[in-house]
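Sequence in, structure out. Go.
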Amino acid sequence: MTELTGVAGWAVGLMESLGGPGAALVVGLDNLFPPLPSELVLPLAGFAAGRGSFSLGAALFWTTLGSVAGAVVVYLAGALLGHDRMRRLAGRLPLVGTADFDRTAAWFAKHGGKAVFFGRMIPVFRSLVSVPAGVERMPFGRFLLFTTAGSLIWNTVFVVAGYLLGENWPLVERYATFFQYVVFAGLTVAIGLFVVRRIKARNGV
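Output:
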């Protein structure tokens, strides 16, 4: 059996020593520290379940609990920041104005449920989508519902894949990393187009 090292070794060791709560802790940290990606830790939870640290059902329960708990912390941080303070901060950003913030807030008020649900299944946005939900004070019960549903679907795919693949769990991370790069590329293009349009508008082009 391959000896795991680095983050993988630390995560599996924590899960094996603490059981399900260890899986919840590792996955919850994904929301607070994005450099610890769920695409890595979720297959590891399935792998740990396959090694007998806990059952597959327990892996799904605890990882989803960790995902939701981490999202709630970020939601509360957004709520603490608040709409008015966030609007003032947006007005001070280069190439961004309060009108942009107002349009975004209006869009989120209309589509916030879908944004939270689908955002929980997109790299990068998984952690960030809880911020506007908190800033705009989305009803907490609604936030919990969409966060739990989206997290459960995302977690199930990766945990079950890690469980079935066993020692070959890194295959999951490899394909997930490719998806993550696609998201990063799309985000970079979108930001680039936004900046170009704003510069042209300011120069009267």
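Check: The radius of gyration is 19 Å. The mean pLDDT is 79.
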